[in-house]
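Protocol step 4 of 5: obtain the predicted structure for the target chain.
Materials: sequence only (see below). No template structures provided, no constraints applied. The aim of this step is simply to have a reference model before the mutagenesis design in step 5. Sequence pasted as it appears in the construct record:
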Amino acid sequence: MSNFARTADTSTLGGVTAPAGKRLRYIEIADDIRSRIRDGKLPAGARIGTFDSLGKDYSAAKGTIDKALDVLRQEGAVVTLAGMGIFVADNPGVMAAGSGQQLAGEVAELRERVSRLEAQVIDLYHSTGRHYSGAKTAGDQPNAHRRASNG
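Step 4 output (structure tokens):
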């Protein structure tokens, strides 16, 4: 009978059953990489390695490394670039406390970028002699274009 046979004493993860009291190797590897990201040992954009180098580092088969990375990819922690290796995502979904502040900063930056793009669209409309009615910036008032045309 295999070590991974299903019995009442086993724990199951992802359809694979591990013997009671043991953790699946790919989960251990994913946990280790995740911890290194959280601790800042692997910062955003850092190259984690290749399948081969990770296999050597963790003494694990390529399939085991692939499963561990699949877990981390689904979490948004890592990205794989074909022919280049595996990298920590720019905004890993497993970042430590403070990620809320980072997210708020990114949202503010995106709002600013959208406002600039919207201003460019408005300028383009005006340059063609047309009025842009979709603007929702602080300076716009609802139905301002209707009042202007009725006056």
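Step 4 remarks: The two ends are 87 Å apart (CA to CA). The chain has five helices and five strands.
Proceed to step 5.
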